[in-house]
């Protein structure tokens, strides 16, 4: 495995198109052709992570939070962050991070947090991105219909919800007259041909369209392929921050005990009414105070996130929403074992992958 292979695996999950405009994340340090035998996963990259990487000879570090968030004017050993970057380059350790794109991604930070805390039928709290969809229609002789359907599906066409390879098919007759200079797959120059054909329709996401057409043309038998592309008003997958969903109705105190157990934390800071039943819960990993009003709009009884300020809690109280600050680290650490398991499968267990599940900076409740 090389660094660029690991980056491709991660980018296929945490799609770069989902990176928010204010964010700076992705492949930040290193040589993409460097061989990778050992990867260290962490929420942040600080001197403790670097020292572990050096001591145990890791080739690549993957984090959620970007190491380089704002542009660096220089790389020296005179400041903490610059020294980290300097040493990473010197030791030839590659650094990749997936931040807002992993927050929004399917099975990313917020999906995993919602799943861990028992939310059912969860949806994003705030919609940030929708897939543009196209209808692709292609006409093909019946002898090649199966291979065209296979190529379309294997390259990402025909995804509807949790179903793939979706097509609609009609059989009919196609007619054409090969003119001078043509080399037709069926028929002869100057003679009108009538062929039994399949009309195959499928749904294609905008960013996959050009590649799917290219792969389709590569296996289509005709010299000139007849196909149509229609833009659709309906949209595809929806991506956004946070999640809101349903739980079995229970007392708030009982549910908070469940949250502490699942997040493996001895404490939570709770703002608002403690003597209530809860059946609809909103969550957001990390700093989610900007989605308090979205939680209210989605009829949540309870909102769990991190980094709550005094006036954030005041707003939630005015809206009748009970607010829980479970901590930035505790609401995002849930993704670390998921990244590890994902990369173990993608690399066929040929790369040693470990994680450092510690907050930066370290802290204690005193």
TrEMBL record:
<keyword id="KW-0479">Metal-binding</keyword>
<comment type="similarity">
    <text>Belongs to the GTP cyclohydrolase I type 2/NIF3 family.</text>
</comment>
<protein>
    <recommendedName>
        <fullName>GTP cyclohydrolase 1 type 2 homolog</fullName>
    </recommendedName>
</protein>
<dbReference type="Pfam" id="PF01784">
    <property type="entry name" value="DUF34_NIF3"/>
</dbReference>
<dbReference type="InterPro" id="IPR017221">
    <property type="entry name" value="DUF34/NIF3_bac"/>
</dbReference>
<dbReference type="InterPro" id="IPR002678">
    <property type="entry name" value="DUF34/NIF3"/>
</dbReference>
